C-alpha cells in the first residue's frame, strides 16, 4: 500500500468528511421528510435513513481501524463501501437524476485517485465502480419498475453514460497522477533525510560513527565502554604534517574495525580519541581488546615508526556520561604510567 503517513492523512480526511457529511445529511433529510416540507418526503426520509446508517458504520469502522493503525485498510473499505453500497442506496432513495445525485457520485473517483495502491490492481476498483454505476443508469432508463425512477425528459442513456464516464475517468486520473507524484516526491524526501541523517552520524575522515551517533546509542544495552587514543599523536602532526596525521587515524580505524561487530561498536570520539561500546561481558571485552592492542603494536606503523595506543575501560553504570568519565580517568592513568597500556578499575590490566 501507499505511504503510511499519506494513508493516515487521507484516512483522517475520509473519516471526518464521511462522518460529518452523513450525519449532516441524515439530520437534514429526516427533518425535511418528517416535517413534510417536500412532496417527496418518502424519498427524503429513505435517504436520511441511508445517511444515518452510513454514519454509524463509518464511525465504528473508523474507530476500530485507527485504534489498530490500519489506515490503508480503512481507506480501501470506506471507499469501496461508499461506492458500491452507500451511494447506490442514496441514488435510488433520492430519485436518481431528479435530485442530481450523479454529481455526488463524482466524489468516488476523486477518493480512488488519492488512495489506490501503485500496482497492477490500481484500476480494478475504480473501473468496476464505473461499470456498476453505468448499470444503474441502464436500470434507471430501461427498467419499468426501478425504485425511485425519475428521469429528466431531455436526457438519454447514451448521453448520460458518456458524460458521466468521461468526467469520472478525468477526475480519477487527475487525482491519481497528483497523488502518485506526491508519493514519489515524499519517498525522495524521506530518502534524502535518511541519507542526511546517515552522513551527519558519520565522521567525515574515518567513516566511523561520530560522537553524535555515540550519544544517541550509548544507553542501548551496552555493558562497558573503552576509550583509547594514539600515543604522542601531536608529535606525528608536528613532525610529518596533518595529512600524515589523518592517514594515521584512518589506518588505526581500519585495524580496529576488523574486530568490530554489533556487540563491539567503534566510534570516533574526537581528535585522536576513539570509543568502543561493548555488549560483551567485561572479561570478554578485555580479552578482545588485548588482541586489538597486539594488532596495533604489530601493524600501526607511520613513516617506518611503530605507533602505540593507550586505553581505559569502564563498566556501564546508570549514567552514561559517568561511565565515559571513569573510562577517561583510566585512560589518563595509562597515559601517565608510560602509555601503550590498558587500565581498568584504576589498575593496569595489560
From TrEMBL:
Domain GGDEF: 221-347
GO MF annotation list: diguanylate cyclase activity
Protein name per its UniProtKB record: diguanylate cyclase
Sorted UniProt keywords: Membrane, Transmembrane, Transmembrane helix
EC numbers: 2.7.7.65
Record field: catalytic activity: 2 GTP = 3',3'-c-di-GMP + 2 diphosphate
Taxonomy, superkingdom: Bacteria
Stored Pfam families: GGDEF (PF00990)
Record flagged with keyword Manganese: no
Annotated signal sequence range: none
Classification via InterPro entries: Diguanylate_Cyclase, GGDEF_dom, Nucleotide_cyclase, Rev_trsase/Diguanyl_cyclase
Primary enzyme class: transferase
Positions of transmembrane segments: 12-31, 43-64, 76-94, 100-118, 130-146, 158-178
SMART domains found in the cross-reference section: GGDEF (SM00267)
CDD domains on file: GGDEF (cd01949)
Record has Transmembrane helix as a keyword: yes
Amino acid at each position: 500500500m501507499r505511504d503510511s503517513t499519506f494513508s493516515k492523512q487521507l484516512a483522517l480526511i475520509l473519516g471526518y468528511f464521511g462522518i460529518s457529511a452523513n450525519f449532516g445529511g441524515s439530520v437534514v433529510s429526516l427533518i425535511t421528510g418528517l416535517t413534510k416540507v417536500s412532496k417527496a418526503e418518502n424519498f427524503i426520509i429513505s435517504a436520511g435513513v441511508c445517511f444515518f446508517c452510513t454514519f454509524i458504520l463509518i464511525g465504528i469502522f473508523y474507530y476500530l481501524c485507527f485504534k489498530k493503525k490500519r489506515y490503508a485498510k480503512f481507506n480501501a473499505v470506506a471507499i469501496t463501501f461508499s461506492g458500491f453500497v452507500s451511494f447506490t442506496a442514496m441514488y435510488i432513495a433520492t430519485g436518481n437524476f431528479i435530485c442530481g445525485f450523479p454529481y455526488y457520485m463524482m466524489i468516488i473517483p476523486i477518493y480512488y485517485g488519492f488512495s489506490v495502491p501503485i500496482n497492477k490492481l490500481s484500476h480494478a476498483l475504480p473501473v468496476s465502480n464505473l461499470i456498476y454505476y453505468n448499470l444503474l443508469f441502464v436500470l434507471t432508463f430501461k427498467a419499468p419498475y426501478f425504485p425511485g425512477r425519475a428521469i429528466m425528459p431531455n436526457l438519454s442513456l447514451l448521453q448520460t453514460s458518456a458524460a458521466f464516464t468521461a468526467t469520472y475517468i478525468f477526475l480519477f486520473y487527475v487525482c491519481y497522477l497528483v497523488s502518485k507524484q506526491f508519493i514519489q516526491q515524499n519517498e525522495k524526501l524521506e530518502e534524502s533525510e535518511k541519507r542526511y541523517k546517515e552522513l551527519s552520524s558519520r565522521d567525515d575522515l574515518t567513516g566511523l560513527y561520530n560522537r553524535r551517533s555515540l550519544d544517541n546509542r550509548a544507553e542501548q544495552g551496552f555493558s562497558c565502554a573503552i576509550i583509547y587514543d594514539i600515543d604522542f599523536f601531536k608529535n606525528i602532526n608536528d613532525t610529518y604534517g596533518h595529512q600524515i596525521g589523518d592517514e594515521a587515524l584512518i589506518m588505526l580505524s581500519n585495524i580496529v574495525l576488523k574486530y568490530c561487530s554489533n556487540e563491539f561498536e567503534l566510534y570516533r570520539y574526537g581528535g585522536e580519541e576513539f570509543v568502543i561500546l561493548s555488549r560483551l561481558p567485561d572479561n570478554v571485552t578485555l580479552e578482545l581488546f588485548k588482541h586489538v592492542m597486539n594488532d596495533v603494536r604489530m601493524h600501526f606503523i607511520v613513516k617506518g615508526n611503530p605507533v602505540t595506543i593507550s586505553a581505559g575501560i569502564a563498566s556501564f553504570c546508570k549514567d552514561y556520561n559517568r561511565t565515559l568519565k571513569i573510562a577517561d580517568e583510566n585512560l589518563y592513568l595509562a597515559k601517565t604510567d608510560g602509555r601503550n597500556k590498558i587500565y581498568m578499575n584504576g589498575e593496569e590490566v595489560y
